[in-house]
Amino acid sequence: MEFAESMELAPLSHKETISSGSPHEALFIVLAYLPLFELLSMSAVCRSLRDAVEKDVLPWLNLIVEKPLNFRLSDEILMKIASKANGRLRTLALMNCAKITDDGLQRVIHQNSLISKLHIPGCTGLTPDGVITAVQKLSDRQHGLESLRINGTGNMKKEHLERIRYYLQTNQKLQRIQRERQPLLYHNYRKFQAYRWEEHGRVIDVEICPKCNEVRVVFDCPREECKRKRGGSMTGCQTCMFCTPRCEECGKCVENEDLEETVCADTLCSDCWIQLSKCNFCNKPCCSRHRHMQITSTGSVGWICSVCHDKSNGFE
Ligand SMILES: [Zn+2]
Ligand SMILES: [Zn+2]
Ligand SMILES: [Zn+2]
Ligand SMILES: [Zn+2]
Ligand SMILES: [Zn+2]
């Protein structure tokens, strides 16, 4: 992609920002770790940062595409951005990039055989066979793939996952990482940044849910009694998010009969439900992710939820 063209993806507010003096040296170090959107924004701040982004290969070795650019990323744009790494791409993280096809992914991988982190969750345009081909290609060298996220690939079945695991397990380093695996909690999982996944000691994000037998992300439970019961073996609540409702705030499993009503329709355990403040009208809380649904007005105590607010204003 021509630089001017890639700048079209940068936010407008940054395009006009011109700083006085030269940027702090730390900014140049940070460049290599930024998601694409921030990278393009940074390059709009001043000439020296723009030169660093444009001429240096380093910022392009870890390509992370998240919201809001994910919706616009096509195979062609991906090829152009990936080519900036000159075949040395290390991280390819395409978060929920629905327009990317098997063909687009294959083309990038063909030119970048050094990719060690492949994160393609929610890329619904990819097929299980496309993902398998990619993993096979990237595992076929000494250090291979260190981190793989494929949750949300359509029609991924047990046998597909088995083939993927087969290719991954040829790598000894992977087996070591897998042993250091940390518990994966539902409320943390939602907050994960693309580039922080491996802190959780997992090579691959999905496994077979013991309850529904589907290829899904399987969560651990922080509830003390569930942890005690677990003792090495799977407990009833160690399943995917569809099989066991979990608290949005603390990740604990919630029994169906204990489900409390919330403004945002997310699940909360009774402990978290009691602690959160409630709407003055309907007495329901919001999870912290949906705090924007709480409307406060000057002179009154507490808040009312956007649903009650709209009702009282006659929008419904
Ligand atoms: Zn399940
Ligand atoms: Zn909770
Ligand atoms: Zn539990
Ligand atoms: Zn309300
Ligand atoms: Zn919520």
TrEMBL record:
Query: Which part of the chain is the F-box domain?
Result: 16-63
Pfam entry (one) = F-box
Matching SMART domains: FBOX
Q: List, alphabetically, the PANTHER family matched.
A: F-BOX PROTEIN SKIP28, MITOCHONDRIAL ATP SYNTHASE COUPLING FACTOR B
| Name of the protein this chain belongs to | F-box domain-containing protein
Organism from which the protein derives: Hibiscus sabdariffa
Question: Taxonomic lineage of this organism?
Answer: Eukaryota, Viridiplantae, Streptophyta, Embryophyta, Tracheophyta
